[in-house]
Write a structure and sequence with these properties.
3 helices, 31% helix, GTP Cyclohydrolase I, domain 2, elongated, single chain, 5 strands, alpha+beta, five-stranded mixed beta sheet, 118 residues
Length: 118
């Protein structure tokens, strides 16, 4: 399966277990792999035959601005489902990292993978 990747996408969102942590948007970092058959785009050189990654990035920014999340897991699931449903991906793998959230820690987060369900 072919993959489109978006690496180190920085997005502001409200995220955290204590309510005070969701009071102000914080930066999270996303690494995303989107499964899609890219053979038609390779032949046609047309954006209509692929997933417009600019549109994906814009939609993620919009979705994460609109919602707040208690868990990194819920945020990751929301982004996966958005890409699967709105952009027709066959599968999505996403890594969500909260940088420097604890002393002495570079980042923490989750990696999840989801397939399109027929």
């Amino acid at each position: 399966m072919d993959k489109i990747f978006i690496s180190e996408l920085k997005v502001k969102t409200k995220l955290g277990m204590p309510a005070w942590e969701r009071m102000v948007a914080q930066t999270i970092i996303l690494d995303i792999e989107i499964g899609y058959d890219l053979s038609a785009a390779g032949k046609s050189d047309a954006i209509a035959d692929t997933i417009d990654y600019g549109a994906v990035v814009a939609r993620i920014h919009e979705a994460l601005k609109e919602h707040s999340f208690q868990l990194v897991e819920a945020l990751a699931e929301r982004v996966c489902q958005l890409i699967l449903k709105e952009f027709g991906a066959s599968n999505v793998k996403i890594k969500v990292a909260k940088p420097a959230i604890l002393p002495g820690l570079q980042a923490l987060g989750v990696v999840i993978e989801r397939d399109h369900q027929i």
